[in-house]
Amino acid sequence: MKISECMTRNVRVASPNDTLRDIAAMMAAEDFGAVPVGENDRLVGMVTDRDMVVRGLARDKGPDTAVRDVMSADIKYCFEDDQLDEVLENMGEIQVRRLPVLNRDKRLVGIVSLGDLAKDGATDTAPAGEALSEISQKGGEHSQSVQ
Q: Which helix (H) or strand (E) holds 62?
């Protein structure tokens, strides 16, 4: 199965100049925990609710802090024509629960979460469980405490 078959489309995109308050309100209204950050029609980062807490609140940054100050600029992503099992394995290795989905022109076309993959992937949810086990390991290259 290709990622395009189970990803979420119509993704909201934040600007690097949006404030943490803006993004928190968006997350609350839409009930999601990660937002791609775009500028000049290009993906420049991702911001998660955890980024906002660990890189924002824990470092005394207030609600008017710009998203660019807490976002992850090292963007991990997958392509819409990637196979589900390959993406699950990659998510486990890089320890992320969500990935922006790009087309081959590197334009954002969606987002995929571990939950999407477990729910829509197949009757066999073992690969999603294995990925979650790897993602849940402490630390790793994608630790929000680094920056």
A: none
What pLDDT does 122 receive?
A: 46
Whether 140 is covered by a domain: the verdict is no
Q: Helix or strand or coil: residue 21?
A: helix
Residue 143 lies in a domain: no
Structural domain including 87 reads 3-135
Residues 100 and 107: their CA atoms lie apart, in Å, by 10
> CATH number for the domain including 81?
3.10.580.10
Per DSSP, what are the bridge partners of residue 35? 47
Q: What is the DSSP letter of 18?
A: S
> Which tens digits make up the pLDDT trace of 99-136?
999 999 999 999 999 888 777 544 455 554 554 454 44
Mean pLDDT computed over every residue of the chain: 85
What is the number of structural domains in the chain? Answer: 1
**3-class secondary-structure state, position 141:** coil
CB 13: neighbour CB atoms within 10 A?
16
